[in-house]
Amino acid sequence: MATEIEQETRAEQRDSVQQERDQVREKLRVSRFDAVTSLFLALILFLGAFVFMMFVVWLLSGEPKPQPLKPIIENPAGRGENPEGFERDFEPPGAEEVEELMEPTLADTIEAVTDAVSTVAASLTATDSNATASTSGTGKGDSRPPGPEGEGDDIIGRWERWELTFNAKGKKDYAQQLDFYNIELAAFGGGKNVIETASNLATSPTKNVNNTPETEKRLYFSWKLSNPLLQFDRQLLAAAGIEYSGRNVIRFIPPDLENRLAAMEKEYAEANGKKFPHDIAKTVFESKSGGSGYEFSIVSQRYRKGR
């Protein structure tokens, strides 16, 4: 009898212990709340680590700064500073040029506006004045020496062999291209011994005046033919408060752009087995949309005969 009682007591104790264990296990069991909380915590930690890694990648992979191109000196020696010539003079327009610089007629203006509706392409050529067509004065040519001894006269200068082409859908697009390249519009001559330039053409045209034209050394170009972009030049100059009637309208090329174009020209010529710059007669650059703005590319290059 006593044995049965002891067995029942032990069984009850075991049951009691088992119940306590089950209760403890129930308390330690992961609830749905705990599972969802853990999931969100894991996602937060993962996203935090991912964002941190992306931040580190952004810091370490910053856009590399382009190294400035070493200027290409085509003419390392020669006749010296400012030999006589006519390419880079700022002279008043001659009697033969005044007619071309007059205000356009109403018919010409209407035709220009009509042409500007579609995409227009126009080319720039360097000013090549002629003493017989000028009212007064003589030229001093390009400020850069012409070249090694015996070779200076055998190189066609950049101002003569380069042609810059712009494709623009309208005045705003054209002005944005000029601003992108830091090209300034300018007017000189017309009885004024100053150079008036305009910058910030696409937003707020700003006027600047150079009272000492002889200090200006930048390469400049003018239109070789009348075209809608010439009308845009005049409108942009007028917006900057610059008088253009009866004056020469030109575009100043910044030195860094000139150097980039020269590097492109050199690479293009050497890829075609030509000697730079001696063999080049004409290089045509074209401006078009590219990357985050605009870029020039070479569309054609013509070489001198017998080269």
TrEMBL record:
Keywords: Membrane, Transmembrane, Transmembrane helix
Composition bias, Basic and acidic residues: 7-20
Segments passing through the bilayer: 35-60
Biased composition annotated in UniProt, kind: Low complexity: 128-137
Region spans: Disordered: 1-20, 128-156
UniProt name for this protein: Uncharacterized protein
